[in-house]
Structure formats: structure tokens, C-alpha cells
Amino acid sequence: MTRRPAGLLLACAAFCAAGCAAPPVPELDSFPGVAELGARRAPRSPRRVAVECREDPALEEEVASALRRYPVFARVVPAAEADTILRLRLEDQGVRFLGTNDRWGWNVALWLYAWFPSWWVRDEDYEVDQRWALTLSSAASGETLLRMEYDRSRARRPLDDFERGWILWGIWRVPGALGQANWRRVRRSLAPYLRRAVAADVLGLLAGHPDGRWTEETDP
Hints:
By secondary structure, the chain is of the alpha/beta class. It has one domain (3-18, 27-211). The chain has helices spanning 3-17, 57-69, 104-114, 170-173, 180-206; strands at residues 45-52, 73-76, 84-100, 124-138, 144-148, 153-159. Strands 1, 2, 3, 4, 5 and 6 form a six-stranded mixed β-sheet that branches. α2 packs parallel to α5.
């Protein structure tokens, strides 16, 4: 290998190294409307609530943890101790390829000279979204106290070849070569980020954020 190609390879590797680190899951405080909740000293509602999400137990814990941290309800408790159940039901979800990012061109050079290191560079951007229906119900009678709606939660992140599912010569063949297995892999890779976004949206909705539909007048 001549000095020039070796130098180019090192330059590509140095530039792309930043693309190999997984972006951290954002803190709840970074979402609009959530940071203001931390300044509240009294809960919005005196109810003892349990969270239920049968379709995604990990989301159930994410939302419960968020409600414990911010004063929306008096307490977040197991279902046996609750007077109110907050249920989340998935209504719709989507996943899409947004395009390549500014690492792609450098990653092509890395692919040409070394091939396999390029697999770990996050040079493709993807988005997942979900829309959930939220209900507050009486734990004793099962009566629905309130239904809540919001548009949808979204998460966008760059992924590497393994996070979107490895494809032979994928650097040239995506998005045309993406199949159902790849889309499922993308959903799994972005799931922690989307769950955090859903939890933030639920907090904003329950706390009466302007984007939500629960106001003081409709408080159950």
C-alpha cells in the first residue's frame, strides 16, 4: 500500500470513528415541556396510579419511571394498590429510511480500501414513530374516566449496517434491498429512543402541556 492510500484510509477512519459511538438515549428533561414539570412541588392529581401496557412491558416501565420522577400523580404503585389505571394501547406505528448522512461519502472511501470496518459506521438515518391511545380507568369499577389523544411519538437516529440488519454490499443497495427483517431490526435498534419519546409525550399530555388534551377543566 502506498503512503497516499494509507493516509487516505487513516483520514477516513478518523472521520468515521465518531460515527461508531451509539448516541445516548436523551434525558427526559431535554424534551419540550418536561423540564418545567420538575419545578412543581405538588402533583397534578391526588390519584394513586398503575401503568399498564401489555404490548410493550419495557414501555410500561419507562412511563412508570417517568411518572415517579415528575409530580403528575400522587403515587405510582402496583395495580393491586392503585385507584386508577393508566392504560396505553398501540394504534399505529411506522418505520422509514430518511437517507444517508454526511458520513456516507467518507465511509465509501473506507469501504473501498478496507471494506469490513465500514460496517460499523452510522451513515444511514432512520425514523420510527408510534401513536398510542391513553385511557384512565377506575381500578375498582373499570369505568373509563378519561381518554387522551396526541399525534404520535417519533425517534430519529443514524444506524450502522448491523443495527439496520446486514446486507451484502448494503452501502450501495440501501434502501432498495431493505426487507421486512431489516425493518424489524431498525425498530429494535431505535426502540429505547422511541420509548423515551413516548414517555415524554405521555408526561406532557398528563401534565396539561399545550400539545396535550388534558386540562384543568377535564381533570378526572
